[in-house]
Amino acid sequence: MDSRRIRFALPLLGVFLAASLPTFAVEPPEDLVVYGGTASGVMTAYSAAKDGLRVVLLEPGAHLGGMVTGGLSATDLGHFTIIGGYARYFYMKAAAHYGVRNLDLPANWLSEPHVDETLFRDMLKDAGVKVYFHERVREKNGVIRSGKLISSITTADGTQWSAKIFADCSYEGELMAQSHVSYTWGRESSSEYDESLAGVRAHTPQHQFLWPLSPYDDQHHLLPEINPGPLAAPGSGDKKVQAYNFRLILTTDPADRLPFPKPKGYDRTRFALLERYLGEFQQHRGRAPRVRDFFNPVLIPNHKADFNNNGPVSTDYIGHSWTYPEASYAEKAAIWQDTLLYTESFVYFLSHDPSVQESLRNEMNEWGLPKDEFEDTEHWPFQLYIREGRRIIGAYVMRQSDLQTDRTKPDSVGMGSYNSDSHNIQRVAMSDGTVQNEGDVQVPVQPYEIPYRTITPKPNESENLFVPVCLSATHASYSSVRMESQYMILGQAAGEAAALAIQKHTTIQDVSIADLQQKLREHGAILHLAQEFQAGSQPSVR
Q: Which long-range contacts (CB under 8 A, 24 or more apart) does 499-503 make?
């Protein structure tokens, strides 16, 4: 047994007091264990360590930053002046790498994945956070509780990690799911929380087929990648989640560009619907198809771009993410690899298949995989874009009205402002003989406040667990608050609150909101609609 395993196998002893963290006969080796090295996890660990806590960060993979370093370089900003605190500090440091000294323009928020990961690593090193990679919570019996408190977690190699407080900052909510707290996934019905954006959509205008297209071949067999239907009633709930994808970083720099390889397991027949769509494109659109009809490339520094999903058939692997939230680790890995194969195959099809117009193939091949990104994953992103999975049902459930009409909160710990944005959930053969995508939501919102209660469990379920990523929100509200900058903002709030809970010997639910908000403001956070943001100001960094 190595020394690390011995250290973190210390027993957790003590008397558990009402409405307070325990007094330990033997102090746990750490104050806070953060699970998941996402951008939110980094900010949770960094803010807590800056407040003097002993912090360990456990990352199941080999990288820090989650989607921020895993392909999502085109930061989803909304009203970017409401992004404050350590999140803004990070983006200021990223901009400074390119000689930019302010964040006054959306273009100033864009940076390369390898640059961002270096910044995250440097921040954690500066704060004294101990980081361990390849540490995934054991799939079963990975969480040990005593009363309403988590006392330790065990990772797959048998190492036990004890702490006073825990934070699950993973996209999957693996620690949260084993902690005996309430959670959900999928879409609520429109009637459950009185939400017009909830449930099955009656009309999905965006990322839709632009003319009627048959889902069947000449023998009336359903083409690949289409659900036979029927479509459920509008507004009805289900356990389906929006499509996942890989956010590609591609380059036009000949010195940095690698050609798109033919993937092992490539099967062009899975793109029969796309082939039909391309074959009719000129007739219906009056021009040849272009790259932007199938991707949304956003330019980032050094001749690169973040390629996101766009159009009716793109990188979104529609209909293949439904089982992911509750899947076993092996099943999750299979979905992950299947999504990667789909993505590699989609790019190869558009860049090489003879049925694709030559002009589109040529335009695709102006781009390629960057040699200096994702070097240990063959230059494809290492992070699957898990847009939505499990969601805790916490002390407060955020809903559509919190984005639109009830936008202020007394316990605000940060703000959101990005559109209600859910990607398509299914591709269905309709009763009228056409194929349609269903589930996309794109509705503008004004800035709104995010309550502290969304990142804490119900008090009767757990008193020392934060959940800043799989936070307490309906599908309709999560579609806006799920952006990386908001995850980072909520991570800072969790870290600051953990420090207050330990200093005041209280549960996380009983942390003084006034004290927490004062501390967040001291570190540059933007908490309220009426709070004026001074452009160019930065949080204090200690």
A: 499/47, 499/48, 499/51, 499/52, 499/53, 501/21, 501/165, 501/464, 502/21, 502/31, 502/53, 502/164, 502/165
